[in-house]
Specification:
The complex is a heterodimer of chains A (447) and B (123). By secondary structure, chain A is α+β, with helices and mostly antiparallel strands. Helix content of chain A is 51%, strand content 23%. In chain A, strands 1, 2, 3, 4, 5, 6 and 7 form a seven-stranded mixed β-sheet that branches. In chain A, strand 5 and strand 6 form a beta hairpin. Chain A starts with a helix and ends with a strand. Chain B has a five-stranded parallel β-sheet with strand order 2-1-3-4-5, with helices on both faces. The chains are: A alpha+beta (447), B alpha/beta (123). The structure holds magnesium ion. Chain B: InterPro entries: Bact_response_regulator, CheY-like_superfamily, Sig_transdc_resp-reg_receiver.
């Protein structure tokens, strides 16, 4: 029986091949095909889930082969066969060189066919088949190599881009470092400029300082000499027993000592002011007599300019509120603000004097006032005024209307920063041809 | 002798009053003080026709001593006042300007009172 079965399987195999190559009478097909047959052909639409669908494929194939006059021949290659233990299932795995001869020519393809047979009612019937021709890509049926290639290309692209990005990043880093360097250089230049601005104004001050120191020193010398003489007179009057006169001289002596003390302090504060001005700001706030500071810097600025330019002169007006309390400020910084403002005023009136000549009387005034807990400091002049179109620019660094070499353009900008750091405000009022007033306001109370 | 001292330093008044204590007491001199050029001109107008000596600082805010000197010379006062100018030590330029404007004497700071007294013929 088993021999029969093997023989019949061999037979079925051959018949099936004939069926697939359209060489078998259609009406005899059901003998070898199961009702529940399913499978795939080599083309995309060749699929069947039952006998009818299977037959449809075959009918179409038979028609095509007749129309085209197709003759199919094949050379069978070694095949694989398998049966289950109960010998009622058989698997055939075959491969052929399939030659399709038509009117057009011969086409040879590699044809693979797997077919599963079931022993049923004393015959082998096809229950599943799968025909295929291998894709003509060596060892890459699943496009793995292609994908790998694409992947590699992508990887390379990514690498290139990464490289690019890294390069750009490096360039950016370099640019950043360059900017940082430039910034540092700028900061150093700024510090240098601030220092040179300070030194420039110090230069202007030096002559004023020399002059300003001379007067108090003269007084100190004169009043101490006089006091010495007065002491001798006292001795004389004691001998004369004119005690009223002794009393009177003592009174003078006391006055003189007070004057010596006053002028000594005056010289001292001028020297201190100069040293403070040239030194870097300590940033230390101290209780300061703003009136004294204003008076000192107005004189210093005035004499400084006079020393530089003998033809320059201006009336100085001081209207200092005697009730002004001491304020906690960085005196050194505030002095610089005063000096800047006053110097600007002098510059302005001097310019106008040179334009108008004798008929113009320059006046620069400084006033202080306590108003609602606010301390007001006003520096006014009757100079040419600041044109409207540049008024908003005057606090910008490096802005100057002075000729090259005459100003750094930092004075007002530094002043602005200083006042801001004191929590104060700085306002400019100006009328063309009439003059300018700078109003500085700071709170009397600690911030 | 009437002497008008012009200086923006207020303490100059005390200084002169003490330096010339004896002369003031003996009425050898009579000082008046002005603390600006403007004030000085007002005095000069008030003291018209009185023989005076003017002793003026140069470095003063507003009207400087040199401007004051110019004004005084323009007034062509009778009798002509003697004008002595005082300025900072070693100030060639002011000295020359004062000279050319017709200053009679020139003193430098610090004022040597002995010398001044000699010049005023008070010794
Ligand atoms: Mg003076």
């Amino acid at each position: 029986m088993s021999l029969d079965k093997d023989y019949l399987l061999q037979k079925s195999k051959e018949e099936i091949l004939k069926i697939f190559t359209s060489e078998y009478p259609l009406e005899k097909i059901p003998e070898f095909i199961a009702e529940e047959v399913s499978g795939f052909g080599t083309t995309q639409d060749e699929r069947a889930h039952n006998f009818q669908e299977f037959m449809k494929i075959l009918v179409l194939q038979y028609q095509q082969s007749q129309e085209m006059g197709i003759e199919v021949s094949f050379v069978e290659k070694p095949f694989h066969q398998w049966q289950n233990l109960s010998k009622d299932l058989a698997l055939l795995v075959q491969e052929f060189d399939l030659s399709i001869k038509s009117k057009v020519g011969v086409n040879t393809i590699d044809f693979r066919l797997s077919s599963l047979f079931e022993w049923k009612q004393d015959s082998w019937k096809l229950i599943h088949w799968h025909g295929s021709t291998p894709v003509n890509v060596e060892k890459d049926a699943w496009h793995v190599t292609e994908w790998q290639k694409k992947n590699d290309e992508l990887k390379q692209k990514v690498e290139e881009q990464t490289q690019n990005l890294m390069l750009k990043n490096e360039q950016l880093q370099k640019a950043k470092e360059q900017i940082e360097d430039t910034l540092k250089e700028l900061k150093e230049t700024q510090d240098l400029l601030i220092q040179s601005e300070k030194m420039a104004s110090l230069g202007e001050l030096t002559a004023g300082i020399a002059h300003e120191i001379q007067n108090p020193l003269n007084f100190v010398n004169n009043f101490s000499e006089l006091s010495n003489e007065l002491l001798e007179e006292i001795q004389e009057e004691i001998e004369n027993k004119d005690f009223d006169e002794v009393k009177a001289i003592c009174q003078d002596l006391k006055g003189n000592l007070e004057k010596i003390n006053h002028h000594g302090k005056r010289a001292d504060s001028i020297v201190k002011g100069m040293l403070q001005h040239s030194r870097a700001s300590t940033g230390q706030k101290e209780w300061t007599d703003l009136n004294g500071l204003a008076d000192e810097y107005l004189r210093l600025a005035y004499h400084g300019l006079r020393a530089k330019d003998k033809s320059f002169n201006s009336e100085l007006k001081m209207d200092l509120d005697p009730n002004l309390p001491k304020v906690e400020i960085i005196a050194q910084d505030f002095g610089r603000v005063l000096l800047n403002m006053i110097n600007n005023s002098f510059y302005s009136v001097n310019e106008k004097k040179q334009q108008l000549g004798e008929s113009f009387q320059p006046v620069v005034s400084v006033s202080t006032k306590l108003l609602d807990g606010q301390i007001q400091l006003k520096i006014s002049d009757n100079g040419n005024g600041i044109p409207e179109e540049i008024r908003h620019k005057i606090f910008q660094p490096f802005f100057t209307t002075k000729e090259t070499g005459q100003g750094t353009g930092l004075g007002l900008s530094l002043s602005y920063d200083i006042i801001k750091a004191h929590g104060g405000t700085i306002k400019v009022e100006s009328k063309i041809g009439e003059g300018t007033s700078i109003l500085i306001e700071i709170s009397q109370k600690k911030e | 002798m009437k002497i008008l001292v012009v200086d923006d330093e207020v303490d100059v008044k005390t200084l002169f009053e003490q330096r010339f204590r004896k002369e003031i007491r003996s009425k050898a001199v009579d000082f008046v003080f002005a603390f600006s050029g403007k004030e000085a001109l007002q005095y000069i107008d008030q003291l018209n026709h009185e023989a005076i000596l003017i002793l003026s600082d140069i470095n003063m805010p507003g009207m400087s001593g040199l401007e004051l000197l110019k004004e005084i010379k323009q007034k062509e006062l009778v009798p002509k006042p003697i004008v002595m100018m005082i300025s900072a030590y070693g100030d060639e330029q002011n000295y020359n300007t004062a000279k050319s404007l017709g200053a009679d004497e020139f003193l430098t700071k610090p004022v040597d009172f002995k010398l001044l007294k000699e010049k005023l013929q008070l010794n």
